[in-house]
């Protein structure tokens, strides 16, 4: 009587069991499919990584390390203007266009600035000090957020992340980018020839991209190219920021342009950099004994209106070959080869004059300025030529004759045009005899005058060169020597004696610096400071001896503090030795 119900119960149970088994199989299949999809995604991301770099990485291991260790950062420098930071696993969201610091229990953030990181920034991305368009920072997330984000593509190359400041201007390319990149790489050994430059300013390659490619063996990456690599990129090891130690000029963003204070670079560092570039370019330099003059020809603006006559004038005046060159008609390697063997480089004021970097020691740099442009107000190339150990002679010539200038008031404002200004301002600019000091970068009077074309007064120019360059051309090639400073004087001693109630003697002696015996020095002198203890003033002396007895202003029964240092060749000042305490 109850058998049909029993059979129905067994059927229901059997169906339920089949459904459970089918659900388990389907669940297992879904999980296997998800795992396969994850593996396929990891393989795709690994392929993307391998396409970016020849370095192979285990994607799963790299992802696990990111999840466990997060991002790690250690920086050098106390202020944002001098800071360079080393990161492990710094990531970049190409959708948000933001760098990302993932926090885990193993993360390191040094310096840990808190909100001070935004006052105004962690660091400068370029070598130009404290420019608001060059600031770097990152957003922060916990590593748990990675589960909600696109899977990262890892960049396994050691990367140097930075901004180019003005990639179409040769002066800016060398001064702001190439030199700082080169010496940042010298500062951190793992930034070697196999590292990769990453430019984050957002520009296209620009006119001089091939120069950046000389610095490493790998193609630099542009910000726009990062989007094609993935939505989330993680740099396994990277450095952010640039060394500013090689920069010598400030462009007038806060105060009128001029040499930077407290320069830290010398000609020695400049020439090591240019030697590196010459080798990378495989440039052939003219090592023959015949001197020649190179004249830069401008073809668009700031023209030399009598260029052919000027070149002939140089050849006749100095009895040397004079060559006209331009950035448009010569390869960069050919220009480097020509300039490396030149006795003189001549050019209108402009970015091409940074090529004076490649001149041999002893050569002459001649910079021509248009009418109403004071050479003393615009000195990037004079500063370069005057760096210690650069050993270049610098000559500035300014057109002082208004009739020898051709202005272009109807051109666009960025090319010196002033037609957009009110009539009174136009008249003021045209009547002005000198551009006043100004800030960068859109002063209409400066632009109007600097884009003038010039008929060079050749006799005036030759007279200016002869007044500044006393030696006959071609100049004897100067061997550039390192600047070597004296060490501390040694074994300094003092002896005292009291002659009477008002008269005392203070005798001081010392030994020469230890390094002097290995050097050929023309002139050695010593500076001695004597200070009565408790007083704020001191008595300075310059002496050619290693011992001397002082009587003037020396009191009996008084304590004196004495400092001594060595001076080479009048201006190479060594360190003071430890202070001597002498009691009369």
Polypeptide structure, described:
The protein has 584 residues and is of the alpha/beta class. The protein has twelve helices and 28 strands. The protein has helices spanning 3-52, 59-69, 170-187, 209-212, 223-226, 267-281, 307-318, 332-340, 380-385, 423-431, 444-450, 458-468, and strands at residues 72-76, 84-93, 98-103, 108-110, 123-124, 135-136, 139-142, 153-162, 196-199, 221-222, 232-240, 249-250, 258-259, 292-296, 321-325, 344-348, 364-369, 393-398, 405-406, 453-454, 490-498, 504-511, 524-532, 539-543, 547-550, 559-568, 572-573, 580-583. The longest helix has 50 residues, at 3-52. The protein starts with a helix and ends with a strand.
Brief summary of the model shown:
Helix content is 27%, strand content 24%. The chain is of the alpha/beta class and 584 residues long.
């Amino acid at each position: 009587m109850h058998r049909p119900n029993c059979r129905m119960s067994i059927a229901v149970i059997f169906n339920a069991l089949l459904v459970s088994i089918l659900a388990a199989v389907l669940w297992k299949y879904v999980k296997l499919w998800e795992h396969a999809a994850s593996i396929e995604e990891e393989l795709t991301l690994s392929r993307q990584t391998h396409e970016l770099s020849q370095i192979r990485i285990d994607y799963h291991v790299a992802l696990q390390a990111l999840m466990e260790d997060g991002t790690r950062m250690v920086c050098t420098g106390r202020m944002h203007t001098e800071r360079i930071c080393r990161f492990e696993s710094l990531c970049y969201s190409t959708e948000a266009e933001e760098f990302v610091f993932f926090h885990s229990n193993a993360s390191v953030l040094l310096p840990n600035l808190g909100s001070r990181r935004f006052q105004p920034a962690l660091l400068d991305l370029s070598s130009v000090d404290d420019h608001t368009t060059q600031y770097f920072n990152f957003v922060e997330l916990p590593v748990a957020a990675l589960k909600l984000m696109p899977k990262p593509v890892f960049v396994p190359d050691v990367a140097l992340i930075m901004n180019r400041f003005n990639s179409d201007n040769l002066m800016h390319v060398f001064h702001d980018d190439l030199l700082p990149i080169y010496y940042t790489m010298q500062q951190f050994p793992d930034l070697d020839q196999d590292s990769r430059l990453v430019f984050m300013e957002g520009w296209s390659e620009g006119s001089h991209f091939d120069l950046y490619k000389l610095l490493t063996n790998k193609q630099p990456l542009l910000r726009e190219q990062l989007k094609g690599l993935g939505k989330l990129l993680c740099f396994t090891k990277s450095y952010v920021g640039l060394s500013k130690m090689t920069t010598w000029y400030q462009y007038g963003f806060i105060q009128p342009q001029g040499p930077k204070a407290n320069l830290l670079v010398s000609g020695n560092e400049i020439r090591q950099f240019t030697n590196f570039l010459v080798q990378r370019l495989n440039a052939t330099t003219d090592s023959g004994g015949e001197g020649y003059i190179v004249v830069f020809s401008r073809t668009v603006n700031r023209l030399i209106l009598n260029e052919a006559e000027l070149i002939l004038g140089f050849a006749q005046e100095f009895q040397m070959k004079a060559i006209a060159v331009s950035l448009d008609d010569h390869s960069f390697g050919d220009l480097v080869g020509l300039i490396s063997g030149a006795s003189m480089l001549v050019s209108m004021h402009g970015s091409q004059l940074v090529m004076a970097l490649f001149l041999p020691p002893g050569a002459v740099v001649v910079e021509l300025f248009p009418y109403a442009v004071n050479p003393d107000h615009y000195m990037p190339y004079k500063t370069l030529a005057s760096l210690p150990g650069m050993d270049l002679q610098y000559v500035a010539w300014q057109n002082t004759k208004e009739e020898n200038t051709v202005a272009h008031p109807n051109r666009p404002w960025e090319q010196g045009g002033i037609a957009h200004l009110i009539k009174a301002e136009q008249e003021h600019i045209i009547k002005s005899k000198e551009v006043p000091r100004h800030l960068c970068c859109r002063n209409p009077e400066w632009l109007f005058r600097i884009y003038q074309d010039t008929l060079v007064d050749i006799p005036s120019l030759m007279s200016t060169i002869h007044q500044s360059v006393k030696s006959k051309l071609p100049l004897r090639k100067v061997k550039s020597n390192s600047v070597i400073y004296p060490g501390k004087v040694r074994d300094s001693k003092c002896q005292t004696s009291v002659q009477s109630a008002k008269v005392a003697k203070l005798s001081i002696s010392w030994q020469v610096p230890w390094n002097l015996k290995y050097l050929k020095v023309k002139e050695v002198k010593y500076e001695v400071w004597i200070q009565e203890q408790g007083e704020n003033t001191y008595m300075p002396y310059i002496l050619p001896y290693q011992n001397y007895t002082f009587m003037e202003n020396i009191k009996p029964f008084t304590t004196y503090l004495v400092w001594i240092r060595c001076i080479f060749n009048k201006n190479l000042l060594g360190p003071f030795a430890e202070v001597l305490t002498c009691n009369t």
